[in-house]
Design goal:
Layout: H1 2-7, H2 23-43, H3 48-76, E1 81-86, H4 93-107, E2 113-118, H5 127-140, E3 148-152, H6 154-167, E4 173-179, H7 180-186, E5 192-198, H8 201-211, E6 217-222, H9 234-241, E7 246-249, H10 255-262, E8 269-275, H11 287-297, E9 302-303, H12 307-310, E10 316-319, H13 322-337, E11 348-351, E12 353-357, H14 358-363, E13 376-378, H15 384-387, H16 389-469, H17 475-503, E14 511-514, H18 515-532, E15 536-540, E16 547-550, H19 552-569, E17 578-586, E18 590-597, H20 625-635, E19 639-644, E20 650-657
Parallel strand pairs: 1-2, 1-3, 3-4, 4-5, 5-11, 6-7, 6-8, 8-9, 12-13, 15-17
Antiparallel strand pairs: 10-12, 14-16, 17-18, 18-20, 19-20
The structure holds adenosine-5'-diphosphate.
């Protein structure tokens, strides 16, 4: 056991002093020896027999002193140091991951010294090399106490077991990555446990069949089987694992040849890559580096059996996960460091797991559903949503907020529309009442307007009767009289039609109309009233039509209200009562209508109030005429205002947008 040589170290080798390294034990041993010596000296002074006896006793005590710490160490555990012997040369990714898995587990248990040596067995071999390695290790670790040796790879285990007796006698060994069939061949080894791996070639062939439907050819690529550490057993498994398939064997070939061959493989073939470590012409590299070179040229998918090869361009396969193997070895090493006997710790087996490369799956059109159960897919390219998660969420939120706003605004618009419709209805009703009132005011002139044609009709009818009573009735004159009657009837009919139209209770309805026509109609309607009230009514219309979108009845009502107000305002002036109506173009986009009079005007402080509802200065006024006029104009998207003219009298103006 290396415990004896490592735990008790000569303190001063040059002096050959046999003092003991552990201070407590040293004290115990030295003091004890010293007291026995003193006792012996005092009891049997100068007595040779007793001296011999005392020497024997001292020898026994010395032996006890040497053995006692050994026994104590066994109880407390082994030296907390691990020597990792690695088969690799360049610390390739597989061994790097294995070491990190091992280290992570060892680090959980406080201070453990880890030594590491790369035996470089994939590049170097032979008796001389082995001998030099052994000498090197022997010399290097002469003074180091080793608790456990971790041997990575079958070749390393082989060397370790051969050297152990000489270099590290009795030190337990934990192997990592010994293939299960190889382990079975070795049988149970003394003071050895470890992590066996299970990665049969049959699994690689199964993967090849999955990724290449109708597979008929397997292409084996790798260094010669005896140089392999993880896949050495594949060489023996070829006949059974590939039965029924054609095999293109490129194992052990030069890299240049491999690169040429893999570029022109048959359609239904797949490459099974075990690991190439050299180009065959003196350059060595890790298996993943060679894999990259091959993947660049290969025209068929590459199946692998070790995790780091996945990133190098393989499609995937049942792969050994180095970190897990390392961690498992670490756990076994810890158990032994903590006092368990390696021989009592059974080896554990790590099986390869189906890992696949998402990018290569896309390249070779392999669907996720065709993969073996429990497959893990690596290097999956994130979807657009995954890649721009926050940005997408921000945009989606913005869209949602916008959508919410739009819905809110639409709802608002709907409510406003409803309110507008309702207010238009109310306005129409009010306007109707206002019209009825206005018509009441105008009733005398309406009657007058009707009386005129009716009177003429009567006179003409009587004249016709007289003519007919004569002996020779003048039929030509009768015909003329009848024509007059007809015309007067039409005039009366026109008055009634206009009145009916004006009094009609109609909803607010806009249509394409000519403002000049509306103004002309209203003024015609007002003409009789105007002459009855001794008012001169003038109308000046803009040349050409003023096309707007509006309700003609309601606009006529506005004009009527303004003109009647003017006539009311001028009632107190004895003469010169004039109302002028004017339509003009106001720029290119609207028309302006003005009604001005020669009345007293509006007191300056009342100019803003005249449009307020129920504002009136008239004895029998209601104060709603101008308020309704403003509502109607606003509903037509126009504006209305009042002013006093510089030469006297009030002027009311309103604008209306022209049809584009
Ligand atoms: P009402 O005619 O019932 O009084 P209106 O709203 O039509 O109601 O008019 C409100 C007030 O505006 C009138 O009472 C009057 O004082 C003033 N007004 C309107 N038009 C004129 C005008 N042309 N000249 C002077 N004052 C006017």
């Amino acid at each position: 056991m290396i415990c004896a040589s490592g735990s008790i170290v000569p303190r001063d080798r040059s002096a050959g002093n046999a003092s003991i390294w552990l201070p407590g034990l040293l004290r115990f041993g030295s003091n004890f020896r010293f007291s026995i010596e003193q006792a012996g000296a005092s009891l049997v002074h100068n007595c040779s027999l007793y001296r011999v006896m005392i020497r024997i006793v001292l020898l026994i005590v010395g032996l006890l002193a040497v053995l006692a710490p050994t026994c104590l160490l066994a109880q407390d555990g082994r030296p907390h140091s691990v020597l990792v012997l690695d088969q690799s040369n360049l610390r390739g990714p597989f061994y790097y991951q294995l070491s990190s898995g091992l280290r992570e587990v060892l680090d959980t248990e406080g201070q453990i010294t880890v030594y590491g040596e790369n035996l470089d067995l994939t590049r170097f071999g032979g008796a001389a090399y082995e001998e030099s390695l052994k000498r090197y290790l022997k010399e290097k670790y002469r003074d180091r106490s080793i608790g456990v040796i971790v041997a990575n790879g079958a070749g390393t285990l082989d060397h370790t077991l051969r050297w152990r007796e000489e270099l590290w006698p009795g030190v337990p060994v934990v192997f990592a990555m010994l293939e299960v069939t190889q382990l079975a061949k070795l049988g149970r080894l003394a003071n050895v446990t470890g992590v066996a791996i299970k990665n049969p070639l049959a699994d690689a062939i199964k993967t090849a069949r999955t990724v290449v439907p109708g597979l008929d050819t397997i292409v084996l690529v790798g260094d010669s089987w005896d140089r392999q550490s993880l896949f050495r057993h594949w060489g023996e498994e070829i006949p059974t694992a590939t039965s029924g398939l054609m095999v293109i064997d490129l194992v052990g070939q030069k890299m240049s040849n491999i690169l040429k061959r893999v570029a022109e493989l048959p359609e239904r073939s797949a490459i099974v890559y075990s690991g190439v470590f050299s180009d065959g012409a003196g350059t060595y590299y890790p298996a993943a580096t060679a894999m990259r070179l091959i993947a660049e040229k290969a025209n068929r998918p590459i199946v692998v059996g070790a995790e780091p090869l996945l990133a190098a361009g393989a499609i995937g396969g049942y792969s050994l996960i180095a970190k897990e193997i390392g961690a498992e070895a670490g756990r076994l090493a810890l158990r032994i460091l903590n006092g368990e006997q390696a021989g009592n710790v059974p080896p554990v087996t790590q099986e390869s797991k189906p890992l696949f490369n998402w990018k290569q799956m896309q390249r070779w059109n392999v669907s996720e559903s065709s993969l073996p159960e429990g497959s893990e897919i690596r290097f999956r390219e994130p979807t657009f949503l995954e890649q721009y998660r926050w940005e997408s969420m921000a945009v989606a939120s913005a869209i949602l907020i916008q959508a919410g706003l739009i819905i809110f605004l639409l709802h608002e618009r709907h409510l406003r529309r409803n309110a507008e419709v309702e207010s238009h209805e109310r306005m129409s009703e009010l306007a109707h009442v206002n019209r009825q009132a206005t018509t009441g005011e105008l009733s005398s002139s309406i009657a007058h307007e009707l009386n005129q044609p009716l009177g003429s009709i009567l006179t003409n009818a009587e004249t016709a009767e007289l003519i007919l009573k004569s002996d020779k009735p003048d039929l030509g004159e009768i015909r003329e009289i009848l024509a007059d009657i007809k015309r007067d009837d039409q005039r009366a009919g026109e008055v009634i039609r206009r009145l009916r139209g004006f009094l009609k209770r109609t909803p607010f309805e806009t249509r394409d109309i000519d403002l000049n026509e509306v103004m002309g109609e209203a003024f015609k309607f007002l003409s009789v009233q105007a002459s009855a009230r001794n008012v001169a009514l003038y109308l000046q219309t803009a040349p050409g039509a003023l096309r707007i979108k509006g309700d003609p009845i309601q606009l006529q009502q506005v004009i009527l209200n303004l003109v009647v107000n003017s006539m009311d305002a001028m009632a107190t002036i004895p003469y010169g009562r004039t109302v002028i109506g004017r339509t003009e173009l106001n720029g290119g986009s609207s028309a302006v209508i003005s009604i001005s009079d020669s009345g007293p005007g509006i007191p300056a402080d009342k100019l803003a109030q005249v449009f307020d509802p129920f504002f009136t200065t008239k004895e029998k006024g209601m104060g709603i005429g101008l308020s309704i006029a403003r509502t109607i104009i606003l509903a037509h998207k126009g504006q209305i205002w009042a002013e006093n003219q510089s030469g006297g009298g009030a002027a009311f103006h309103f604008t209306l947008p022209l049809v584009a």
